[in-house]
Amino acid sequence: MKTRSTAVNQVIELGNGNYCIREAESTNCYLLIGEKKALIFDVGYGYEDIKPLIAELTDLPLIVVNSHGDPDHALGSCWFAEAYIHELDLGKLFRNDTPEMKQKALDYRLNKLPALKPHIDRDMYLKTSVKGVNYRFVREGEVFDLGGKVLETIHLPGHSYGCIALLDAKNKDLFSGDMVTKHNIWYFLPADEQAPFRQAVSSYRKLQRRKAEIARIYPAHGSFPIGVGIIDQLLDSLEDMKQNHASDLYFESFAGSGYQHYYKDTLIIYSKARLEEFMEDSAHED
Ligand SMILES: Nc1ccn([C@@H]2O[C@H](COP(=O)(O)O)[C@@H](O)[C@H]2O)c(=O)n1
């Protein structure tokens, strides 16, 4: 099928009725089309309404599912009547739904991509809100049957308390949100926004146990698909970070600051407090 992109959203065909709608060269939103229904996994910051792009690819009833409540994944819910999110992340989404947060995030993005400036209606965007959306809570094990394509929800707390991934076991595709990626993973936001590292370790171990069911991983940021070996690398990177963090470089963003730990293909950006807590937790385990 011929796909149309806009200046803000690039549409990439993945095969097997799956598409990536990549917003502003950053957030990979996945449109998964079955025989009876379609599902969009993440909807970006929502700099523009992506419904017209979706309508060119499918006219099936659409289910909107957010991988977690961060603004770059879920603020775009404002364009839809109903959206799924894990209950632990709805508060986070609402806290991020302010003109100030949107302004900061937009400035950060336009600083990286000045060519987008004429294509985003800033005033309109600052007025959007996710508060009028009808939310449904998505839970561990919940299944979305699209007809010929079935997606199982896997709860993976870590980068946020309510992070989920969707597994299409028949086709061996994992749509991993922010928990599994070769791009950076932020772990420096306050403790009420992101789970302790010990929970991230449990989440990566949970995915390790499902490795035989996964051949390709489609992350919410960075290149795709990636191989299943990245799950082991992420676990190893957390161990490595405990030992080898002395030369980690400082990082600053519109949402806070942290330190960058590179390990093989992975990059964890963490706060000192979170690392100290992790090291203490590990000491008690021994
Ligand atoms: N509230 C937020 C906002 C963004 N992130 C992460 O920022 C990264 C953005 O990467 P770009 O290279 O596209 O600038 C990405 O890892 C987001 O997940 C976040 O964690 N929380």
UniProtKB/TrEMBL annotation:
<dbReference type="Pfam" id="PF00753">
    <property type="entry name" value="Lactamase_B"/>
</dbReference>
<dbReference type="InterPro" id="IPR036866">
    <property type="entry name" value="RibonucZ/Hydroxyglut_hydro"/>
</dbReference>
<dbReference type="InterPro" id="IPR001279">
    <property type="entry name" value="Metallo-B-lactamas"/>
</dbReference>
<comment type="function">
    <text>Counteracts the endogenous Pycsar antiviral defense system. Phosphodiesterase that enables metal-dependent hydrolysis of host cyclic nucleotide Pycsar defense signals such as cCMP and cUMP.</text>
</comment>
<dbReference type="InterPro" id="IPR050855">
    <property type="entry name" value="NDM-1-like"/>
</dbReference>
<protein>
    <recommendedName>
        <fullName>Metallo-beta-lactamase domain-containing protein</fullName>
    </recommendedName>
</protein>
<feature type="domain" description="Metallo-beta-lactamase">
    <location>
        <begin position="26"/>
        <end position="221"/>
    </location>
</feature>
